[in-house]
């Protein structure tokens, strides 16, 4: 599924607001990956976006090889800017300009993260991703994915997502969702920029998102010799390992 148009419109706001989300998600992810042998293969960040997760992986695993996969050119520009400005990241991180289905991933993947990504894949594309993971993951490797509500096609009332201040300007984002068929919702992301009491800019954009339950994921993974378990409820983190 293609979210290019959505990120064409919202990339600026994603770049500004996503760091707040990662202030809590980053430590939770680091705890989930603790003890992983990052010398057994590369670490992969699927849907790396602006690179906050990539930088988190680099901090948790000093010296590890990292592959960041990001198909959207705008988000990838921010990702590359982050990497080139840091000598350590520039030495260790390879950025692939493709979606995960077409990226040339390393033969051995010790760890993989896919944060707020899987809903961009159709059910068929998700199963293809699981098959790729089963092929690449090292025997003691670990993948961490997020499954956030809703896990079924049901409405989600509008709620704030994040806020940030840059200079005089205050950025805010909120989200709501409506059912969009038997296995999907349409997210409405609303953003605003304010200078004191004056509204400088506002934008709403729609994004199609495939929903599925943790039980569905477990059923899809089992025939591939993989298993999953929830590890962090507040952030929707689930770890995937070999059986």
UniProtKB/TrEMBL annotation:
Coiled coil: none
Domain of life, per lineage: Bacteria
One GO MF term: methyltransferase activity
Domain Methyltransferase type stretches: 44-142
An example Gene Ontology biological process: methylation
Keyword Methyltransferase: yes
Entry keyword set: Methyltransferase, Transferase
Pfam families: Methyltransf_12 (PF08242)
InterPro entries xref list: Methyltransf_12, SAM-dependent_MTases_sf
Matching Gene3D superfamilies: Vaccinia Virus protein VP39
Protein name: SAM-dependent methyltransferase
């Amino acid at each position: 599924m293609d979210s290019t148009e959505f990120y064409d419109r919202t990339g600026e706001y994603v770049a500004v607001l996503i760091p707040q989300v990662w202030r809590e998600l980053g430590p939770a992810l680091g705890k989930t990956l603790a003890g992983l042998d990052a010398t057994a293969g590369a670490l992969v960040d699927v849907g790396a976006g602006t690179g906050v997760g990539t930088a988190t992986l680099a901090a948790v695993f000093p010296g590890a090889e990292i592959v960041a996969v990001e198909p959207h050119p705008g988000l990838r520009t921010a990702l590359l800017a982050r990497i080139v400005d840091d000598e350590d990241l520039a030495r260790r991180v390879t950025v692939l300009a493709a979606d995960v289905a077409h990226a040339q991933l390393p033969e051995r993947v010790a760890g993989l993260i896919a944060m707020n990504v899987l809903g961009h894949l159709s059910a068929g594309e998700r199963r293809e991703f699981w098959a790729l993971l089963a092929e690449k993951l090292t025997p003691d490797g670990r993948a961490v994915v997020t499954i956030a509500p809703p896990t079924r096609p049901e409405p989600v009332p509008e709620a704030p997502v994040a806020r940030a201040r840059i200079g005089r300007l205050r950025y805010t984002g909120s989200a709501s969702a409506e059912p969009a068929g038997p296995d999907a919702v349409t997210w409405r992301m609303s953003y605003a920029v304010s200078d004191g009491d004056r509204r400088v800019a506002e934008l709403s954009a729609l994004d199609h998102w495939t929903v599925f339950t943790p039980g569905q994921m477990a059923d899809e993974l089992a025939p591939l010799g993989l298993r999953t378990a929830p590890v962090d409820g507040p952030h929707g983190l689930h770890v995937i390992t070999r059986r």
